[in-house]
TrEMBL record:
InterPro entries given in the database record: Aminoacid_DH-like_N_sf, NAD(P)-bd_dom_sf, THF_DH/CycHdrlase, THF_DH/CycHdrlase_cat_dom, THF_DH/CycHdrlase_CS, THF_DH/CycHdrlase_NAD-bd_dom
GO cellular component: cytosol
Organism (species): Paracoccus halophilus
PROSITE patterns per the UniProt record, alphabetical: THF_DHG_CYH_1 (PS00766), THF_DHG_CYH_2 (PS00767)
Top-level taxon of the source organism: Bacteria
Name under which the protein is recorded: Bifunctional protein FolD
Lineage: Bacteria, Pseudomonadati, Pseudomonadota, Alphaproteobacteria, Rhodobacterales
Keywords: Amino-acid biosynthesis, Histidine biosynthesis, Hydrolase, Methionine biosynthesis, Multifunctional enzyme, NADP, One-carbon metabolism, Oxidoreductase, Purine biosynthesis
């Protein structure tokens, strides 16, 4: 006996197909095509890969992809001017500025310059506040993908003990807010948490978003727990490298009830949710009901 392995890749493909279906109907019924603008400043290799994949999947879903590549020494004022232009463009329904930005830029100021209605990453302070107060918000893509997998696996989450390891603004905190909205009893752990092992052992739902390879061993996992591993680290494996998560998959597998693999778990869901958020933004901008 071992945990069910949650197929994030397959789930993400289903989400993308659903989004593509809605996009096709928006076109045929309303002559509207959702548009996503992705802005990349500099040439960070990992960001290049993400941006390329986002563009491919956006087009595959039938949406327009607007890619803007700026040199790393672009003045912040020029980036803000581009964002203002995209905010005003009725053909652009979602705007994503790929992080990290070069050191001379103030990432918070840049993100907060995006029209909150087009903020498909859900990082704008207004969307953070809307989510925190339980109102209709643009929800950050990675935690949204995690929640979709949890709901699919567990149905009603209310009353479950959820432990989120990591408190970043892009994953840990919004994940905790979403689980609270689902009426979980939520604990947020971080680098100062005492006896993390004991905290994790109390989790019916364990979400790991740290970025430390295999730091959570199987004996920290409650038997039957649902484990969502957000972490992605590249480690040496002989003369090659490979990706691993924050959870030690091999020792957690016999203990957990279900677990996401790395790669193939949370990662693919993130872009699928970006497409879903762009569709939502487009529907709202046109006064149409957004699909659930
Ligand atoms: P951050 O570095 O911003 O945050 C890491 C968090 O982990 C911090 O809150 C930190 O605590 C906590 N932490 C660090 N060390 C420990 C420890 N020993 N014990 C407990 N907590 C600890 O990372 P992100 O949230 O941006 O990303 C987390 C991971 O998720 C990364 O591996 C990243 O690559 C991955 N990721 C994956 C995505 C996907 O699509 N699958 C998307 C986004 C991220 P403190 O606040 O106290 O410093």
């Amino acid at each position: 006996m071992g945990a069910d392995i949650i197929d994030g890749k397959g789930f993400a493909a289903r989400v993308r197909a659903e989004v593509a279906g809605h996009v096709a109907r928006l076109k045929s019924d309303h002559d509207i095509t959702p548009g996503l603008a992705v802005v990349l400043v500099g040439a960070d290799p990992a960001s290049e890969v993400y941006v390329r994949n986002k563009g491919i999947q956006t087009r595959e879903a039938g949406m327009n992809s607007h890619e803007h590549r700026l040199p790393s020494d672009t003045p912040e004022a020029d980036l803000l001017a581009l964002i203002a232009q995209l905010n005003a463009d009725p053909g652009v329904h979602g705007i994503l500025v790929q992080l990290p930005l070069p050191a001379h830029m103030d990432a918070e100021a840049v993100i907060n310059a995006i029209d909150p209605a087009k903020d498909v990453d859900g990082f704008h302070i207004l969307n953070v506040g809307l989510l925190g107060t339980g109102q209709k918000a643009m929800v950050p893509c990675t935690p949204l993908g995690c929640l979709m997998m949890l709901r699919d696996r567990l149905g009603d989450l209310s009353g479950l003990n959820a432990v989120v390891v990591g408190r970043s603004n892009i994953v840990g905190k919004p994940m905790a807010q979403l689980l609270l909205r689902e009426s979980c009893t939520v604990t947020v752990a971080h680098s100062r948490t005492r006896d993390l092992a004991a905290v994790c052992r109390g989790a019916d739902i364990l979400v790991a978003a740290v970025g430390r390879p295999r730091m959570i061993p199987g004996d920290w996992v409650k038997p039957g727990a649902t484990v969502i591993d957000v972490g992605i680290s590249r480690i040496a494996d002989g003369d090659r490298t490979r990706l691993v998560g924050d959870v030690d998959f091999d020792s957690a597998l016999p203990v957990a009830g279900a677990i996401t693999p790395v790669p193939g778990g949370v990662g693919p869901m993130t872009i699928a949710c970006l497409l879903a958020n762009t569709l939502t933004a487009c529907c709202r901008a046109n006064g149409l009901e957004a699909p659930e």
